[in-house]
Amino acid sequence: MKKYVYLICVALCGLVSCKDKQPVTNRVSTGGIKIDYPADVQFVSMSAESLAFTNRTTGQLTEAALGATVELSDGLYDCAYEAQVVYDNNGTSVSGHLYGAASGVEIHAGQANFTITAYLFAAQDDFIIEEIFFTGTLYPTGAQYHGDCFVKLYNNTDHVLYADGLAFVETKFLSVQKWDYQPDIRNDTATVQAIYVIPGTGKEHPVQPGGSLLLCDIGIDHRSTNANSFDLSAADFEWYDESTVPSVMDIDSETVPNMDKWYCYTKSIWVLHNRGFRSYAIARMPVDKETYVRDYLYTYSYVMHLEAGDFPMTQTAYKLPNAWIVDGVNCSVEAERLWNVLPPAIDAGWTSCGTINSDPTRYFKSVRRKMLYLTEDGRRVLQDTNNSSKDFNVSCVPSLVEEQQTAISADGTPATGRTYDGVQPMP
Amino acid sequence: MAISGAFCAPYLCDVNYQKLIESLFVWFVAVPITATNLVFVRVTDQTTRRPVADVSVSAGLPDGRMVGTISDAEGIARLRLDDGVYLLEFSHVAYYPFTFSLALQSDTLLPVSMQQSARQLREVVITASESRTISSSSTIGREAMNHLQPTSLGDLMELLPGGISKTPSVSSANIIALRETGTLGATGTATVNSAYQTHALGTLFLVDGAPVQTEANLQYTPQSVGTAEGGRNITNRGVDMRTIGTDDIEQVEIIRGIPSVEYGNLTSGVVNIRKIRRPTKLNARFKADGQSMLFSAGKGLQLDSARRSVLNLDAGLLHAYADSRNPLETYRRATFSARLTHLHENEWSSWRWTPSLDYTGSFDNSKIDPEINYGNTDEYKSTYQRLAVATGVQVVPKNVPHLSRVDASVSVSQQFDRLERERLVSPQRAGIAPASTEPGEYDAYLLFGEYMAEYSVDGKPFNAYAKLSTDLDFRTDWLKNTVKAGTEWSLSKNFGRGQEYDLSRPLLASGWNTRPRAYYSIPAMQTLAVYVQDNATVRAGNHTLEVRAGVRATTLPGLSDAYDMYRQWYADPRLNMQWNLPAFGKRQFRLSFSGGIGWTTRMPTLNYLYPDPTYCDIIQLGYYSQTDPQNYSRYYIRSYRQEPTNYALQPARNRKWEVRADMELAGNRLWICFFEERMSSGFRYSNTYGVYAYKDYDESAINSSALQGKPQLDDIPYVEPQRLYGYSFVENGSRQDKTGVELEFTSQRIRPLRTAVKLSGAWFRSLYSNSRPMYYAVSAVVDNVVVSHRYVGLYDWNDGRRNEQLSTNLLLDTQLPEWGLIFSTSIQAMWYVSTQRLRQNSVPVSYLSADDGQLHPYTDEAVAANPLLQHLVYPVSEAAYLPYTIPTALYVNIKVTKSIRDFMQASFFVNRLLDYTPDFERNGILIRRNVSPYFGMEMTLKL
Asked: Chain A window 22-81: which residues touch B at a Cβ cutoff of 8 Å?
């Protein structure tokens, strides 16, 4: 039986009375939903506050302005909050966005009681993640091939950006496994297990507005090994895991420079999580390598609640302050997802290839950021609302596969047609 | 003329079962006589008036010879005899025998009615019987096997104290575990751990006195590839009981306690199989259960009239599926056995000569369905074929004082083993394969794309065995001494071509670190043992004290003097005692106590003595050409051959002691036994690390545009670092301790219910651990440095688990001989299974450094000086040490055997027909247990 509930919209507090130069109160609530605003920000104005409810069972998305009435069936929801703000930055008014998210909240019999912490998102004047191809391809026999994963970074600004010192990191935690990690540093720090940094002194690797930077696992033409793969020999950087052991041999491309391996949890080769359970981010490292490796080792514990007992686990990884993170993307699959590893301050949503664990249809697919519009000079402007659920197109044909018209399935069917973002076709 | 029942009870004394068995099979067919008169005998049951089959009818001829036959299903027996007076003898296992004098002048019709003998004769023992002798052992007879309906020897193990019926697993080797829980995982599920197989390897299997030798079995893939091989690999694990059928077995004796010094090269116990060596009718058995179909046939032929030569022939076929829905994973077995038993007697001795020829073929097949695996191929085939010829001679001299017996036996066996793998290899990225079987520096093969890999192991283990044993008797009125002395020699050699494959097409694209090895190049190994034992029985009043003390010394002749075991003799002293108190009370209460202590020694196998060399392949130059990957890429490796032979290896030694009390009152018997076994020198492969130097070429110096082929090394600068590289070697590093209590109560048959009750049970505590410090390599890479290439920690920890289980088996054995019906219900309970991880010290005691190859103490100062060392701490959470207990599980099994007249027997079993396996909660998580019944049936025809 479908039961409709009405969120009774009573705007408490003084939000409606907010006026020019009047600071906004720190908390607003509507029908049991409370929004906590960042305390250390002086807001000048706030508009277009909205809530987006995603039903976890049906996937149905319902959007409404904050304070409006929505009809929702009982169930478990992910709720994202968003607003446009103008805030005071040392005397000048700056515009920005507020984002927040609550995961797995229950709405039952017209009642919704949860709090969303909103984060100020000042448009970072830096790279964004444009595309992640983590699933890999298949051999003509259907066996997995892993060497051709890649990540594309994009200069979404109107000026030249330099990639020198930009770190690409993988989170330690899986979106499909959630324990009570202590100390809980998630809201200001990410826990990472692989850190590869683009070399350079500061101005060596410029990227023009509308330009992409291609990072990959192995920068070679993979078709010499797997006819269904594609050419990555023109990539900008590769993460090379130097090893003298044949069992974990990585290939060092002569045409693609290596990233600097600051830390990796494994002495084996590092590949992107091929089922998409980990999250990825790019960061600007304000400290040098020696300092970071020495001082940022992070020992945390959590209790693994298993049938065999409560296992207090102690592990080590590296910590990466959220403030250093330029952009991050949560990945998961619908059927297994438990939480967003990166906090809403970095990504209020999540994206995916495939819907179930080990989804056999996920290969040859990537997640690609949506294009908002083309500028007059043909530069793409990509959508960046800090919510990858909204910003990304899921299970797309990877951009390099489109360009090179290589296989999109194990049987070798070539890709046809090109798109700007996996969906919008190029003329 | 009619012979009435009045003739039928000449002797009413206790019927000697053994004699009856023998007389039943009197079958004198080969005597040439001039027959004139036909004697037509028709035998009926005195009570039921039905014909009686299988009655032995014999007639003594005037010259002392005998002629005879057996009545058929209609009770008819025909004899042709000359005129004269004959003594006719009639005998049958279930009837009183009698003799009758017949004066024959013409063809004669002779109706005979026979009287059924005591009822207990037809009641049979359907369980294992505990011996009353000095060491604890279980004996399983033919009737128990008929009722249990086994497929292979392993199925009989549920009859041992503590045994629980298991659904047979045909997709993995069936390895024996006497008096132990076996290795368990964190949640109490059984696991296979190659580090703790010494007791399985150290269980001696004897077939008619000749051992099943497994020293030279080398059928394995050196690197783990896929799952098909895991449980099927029996290298260093002893005998796979799947390969032993039960249909030609008369009796199995399983010595769990301290065996006589006559038995050696073992740590745990003895499975002593005695095959059928007597005349039998043609037995044909057909069995089907949820996984398998079995057909077997056997017959014992009497070759002469004087009962002196019997030839037993048996053949069997088994076809089993791991899952009957999956025809791609199968197990097949074919067996054939011919056994001659010849008795010879002259004035000074009697001889028993027992030659035999046995064939066993065992075929494992596992394939992945190409249709569900995107057309990929992954096939595993393993064939084991064994041909064994054995002979034994037993001489009982008649006139030599004190010498009571001399036994000699010789056996040779040749196995033809094949393991074949065929696999589509899909490298996750381009890989390399070593191109040379020799150590040194060379270019590796580059592996582009997918390829078919073929791998085979050709093993031809050859085993020879000889034993000479004498028994001497010295008696006085109150003391009886039996001295046994003997010597035993065995040889094992593998003549196979060994591991064969194309090095450029290895089974794994990522890091194939082994090379083909010809097994015929591995030396043969021999063991030589001598033993002497005195068994003294002292009678003092009505008390009897029996003491068996002996010592066995074993050595490995022909072993290279590089080994510490060279010319070493290992002595196993063993002592058993039993004190029988006089029966007292009106109901003859009997009580006896026994106990013993003994050491047992198991020599290493061929694989432990001569392990495969390990190859440490180090990439010195890794250049992948973009312009012409196939021709210009160059992977130049340095290959070290590391000989992992451990010359300090010693045999595995186990010390066991046990005490037992045995009491009996009015046919009810109760015994209880406590045992403890300690072994800390079990065999295992352990990791160790060596320092290896190599050249690290700077690939960035290669000018790719100028290349006209592979880059030349001369132009490339290099540095010469060194690094740690791990390999495994065999050591006496496993601890396997066994402690436990076994008990059994057997009631007299409760007459009104026709039911006997038997309760057996056991509590086992088994400890599996390392007994030497272990290396452990961490995985982290910090600032481009692989930590384990520089430093590896040595941990003085206990890696392993302590397991416990308590199980009982309550058997209700109901027998209705007049209906030919045996019905048994067994209620098997596993009261609990618990497992606990042993405590581990997470901080290494020392660390090995690549700089100097030396161990350094792991101290706070060392860590402060070198932050990389902080990664060597191996955290184990406290909760991992909590015990995990699986609560009670109860199962009810039923088995029915019905004899239909005398020519057919139909049996049926259901295991776990009912079960009580309550859900339990563990750490807030509800655990449900699902049990499925397993059933089967069989039919045996006797023609």
From this structure: none
